[in-house]
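B., you asked whether I could sanity-check this one before it goes into the benchmark set. Here's the sequence:
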Amino acid sequence: MEILEKITFGQTVVGLGQHNGKADLSGLDLSEDELNIVKALSPRKQVEWVSSRELLHQIATISPRPLCLYDEFGKPYLAGSDKHISISHSETWCAAMVSDRPCGVDVQVYSDTVRRIADRFLTTPDLRKINALKQSDAQQDALPFLHLFWGAKECLYKAYGKRKLGFREHLFISDIDLRTNTARGEINYEQVHLSYDIKFELLSEVAWVYCTACDMPDTVHGE
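And here's what the prediction gave me:
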């Protein structure tokens, strides 16, 4: 697994990498719990799991390496650590993030599939914003911006980490600035009202998006 980019800001580190399509189960010195998770996966999913955890381990620089497990909602966490993490993978690309705040990361290879499912995650105001972005950037194709919105909402969903959120109903993206590659995210769900800082890179092959909560975390994972 090759790290292509690593960005640090405050107590947050995010990385982007690519793998060769092979899973080296010895590279991470996996625990029995982790091995049980990996062995239950398909060969393709094994590669994704190992490469994203390898990237996470390299950018987190926590020694000894904490176990990477899942909570009751399926959200990954580092056992015994108060750090928040997020991971993502798409084909040979992977992304990982570790922060002192709730966070989310998403990487997606550009695909026309996102056009077909746009009505599942975009509102009419979202579509207006995408059209304005396309015009301001003189883009002929809205595909990168569709992936920007998809990735940003994925990041908010991951940062919240408790499911139940509708991409159209509860996740909102605003203040997108193509000069600074930043945006604002909000979750409005029942009594939950949370704000997030979003950063992104629309690369030639993928959209890479990540967010951190504006509010400090109120939970700590243990063993």
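One thing to flag: Helices lie at 32-39, 43-60, 113-116, 118-121, 124-136, 143-160. Otherwise nothing jumped out at me.
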